[in-house]
Amino acid sequence: MDLPRSPASSLQTPVVWSPDCLRHEPLAEIWLGVRTPGTEVATRATTIRSALLAAGASVIDATAHDDTVLTRVHDVGVLEHLRTIYPAWVEAGLDVDPGQDRVVPYLFPTAGLLGGLPLREPVAAHARAGLYCYDTMTLVGPGTWEAARGAVDAALTAVDLVVGAQSRVAYALCRPPGHHAGRDSFGGSCYLNNAAVAAEGLLAAGHVRVAVVDIDAHHGNGTQSLFYDRADIFYGSLHVDPGAGWFPHYVGFADETGAGSGAGRTRNEPLAPGSGDGPWLAALDRIAGAVSLFGATAMVVSLGVDAAADDPESPLLVTTTGYHEAGLRLGALGLPTVAVQEGGYHLDTIGELVVATLAGLCG
Predict the structure, then answer these.
(1) What would the pLDDT profile of 135-156 be if each residue is shown by its tens digit?
(2) CATH code of 270's domain
């Protein structure tokens, strides 16, 4: 695939996106039982795209990919669920009575509910809503499946660019984000795990060891769970300490280091609220050192910018300079790299933060 020419002074990173990513409109989140405005809005993607265009980046459309790599990451059941649950919700009349225009779980098949009995798929759409979703914040609407699938195509197209040596670094402007989605679960405003798909795509293309470095403000519990017992994928994350009361609360601690064949292949760097650039970059350096020791032949960066000082979703207080420096330090590893957009919710600064990080990655 040919990339458009750009001025010599422009951002030297191909930017891949799918217009379908704008079709997801959650409209709200159900937070502690209260309907609150949604933060994972389509404007996030258009704002980033505008900033990248202004920086001179080459923006290209994602190309369609089949499900071969996607089904290495997610069970078919959760894919079918995401594709069909909203039409089933409407068919059941739940958008009229009780008047909920998005799919929201009210019941979750926890171990306590099942009591050791096998998990069965319920008949009622309102019961099926919680079959794979683990929170009430991650609503499914009429365009959610198409947007999530478009984000996967963007990630795989970025993989194609890197594997084809058309660029050492390629960026997938994915929306919705993905790092909280597991093999048979979704939540945290994430539906399909774009970074995990990119990692599997790099392996399928011939890379033998892939590192996933997650700089989003929150731990990527979905990505960690997918690769926790794998020897061929390293997962490293620096994030606000879940022990200080931050999502995902139950996982993301330093003593989670992998299991079985993946023992030592996971590294978590939980950070105290208010850490700022210094501790954040020191944690990144430790993860970068682990990537080098792992012997990665390619890297995926889960590029969340919600650790920034102005972002309402975390207290880490990282500056734009800190993000640029993070990009430089990861870029210095010299690895073929696919950067995948994760979080970032402060619309006035999200674009410049992504531009700064990508500029660093490209050196």
Answers:
(1) 999 999 999 999 999 999 999 9
(2) 3.40.800.20
